[in-house]
Amino acid sequence: MFYVPIKCNKTQFMSTLLTFTYSLLAFFGSTIDQSALIAQTVSLDIKVYLEGPYDASTGSMSTTLYELGYLPGMTPKAFFAEPVPFFDPYDEFYDQTLKSSTDDSDVYNNKTVDWIFVSIREEDTGNTVSNQTVLLNADGTINGGSIPTEKLSTLKKYIIVLAHRNHLPVQSTPIKLNKGKLSFDFTNSDVIGLKEKHKVKLMIAGNIDQTKTRSTRVINMEDVDTWRSANGKNSSYLREDIDMNGDVSVHDQSIILENLDLSTSVNINE
Ligand SMILES: [Ca+2]
Ligand SMILES: [Ca+2]
Fold this sequence. Notes:
Elements: H1 10-38, E1 41-47, E2 54-55, E3 60-61, H2 64-67, E4 112-122, E5 128-137, E6 142-143, E7 146-148, E8 158-164, E9 167-171, E10 181-185, E11 194-197, E12 200-203, H3 221-230, H4 250-258
Parallel strand pairs: 1-10
Antiparallel strand pairs: 1-7, 2-3, 4-5, 4-8, 5-6, 8-9, 11-12
One calcium ion (CA) binds next to helix 3.
């Protein structure tokens, strides 16, 4: 057994060691990047609670709209209830085949709370990478939601914007792709625009008037007036039904009044 002595001073040795370390990091780094890119889609790993249907006693959201058959496209259980044709409040389905479907009650299940709009934007340019509407589950996770891998870069950061038909929109902090996912937990986050209640963070309820760019960002008297004009409607899928029990009542109004004048800078019309 023999060895060849290598002549080098301390500086050269440290330089060689650093080069070797960087090579190792580059190798494993590229392996991680490639593993994320091998999959054809990047999944959205989002958790969010809506004020109103969120029930602190169960730690999850109500699925009453599903249970009573009030979600768009479902046949209500009660004969006097008003069915709502299948539609998407934001016209951006995660699954485009749903768009042409006429009987969509099968898309729901006993975990379904409602539809929620998800927009993915590049942090540096603000450009929208993807807009889609996905189903929100009682535990705050979303059902479905993915983005073709080629639309994303492992070198960039992204912002997840969420909007709902009667809540203030909210957005995540910039995040990077991680293990083939874009992940953000809004239920345990300090981002502006969430409300802490029952020791969790919730999207703020009461934003039922979203007819103009400004009105999508604020809960004000226009929302109260919209509620007033619908007060007493019942047994259907109603924007003014903030706690999502199928009826528009003073319980819904009390939530709007609690949040009156709250606003956000998040723009969902980009
Ligand atoms: Ca509003
Ligand atoms: Ca209600």
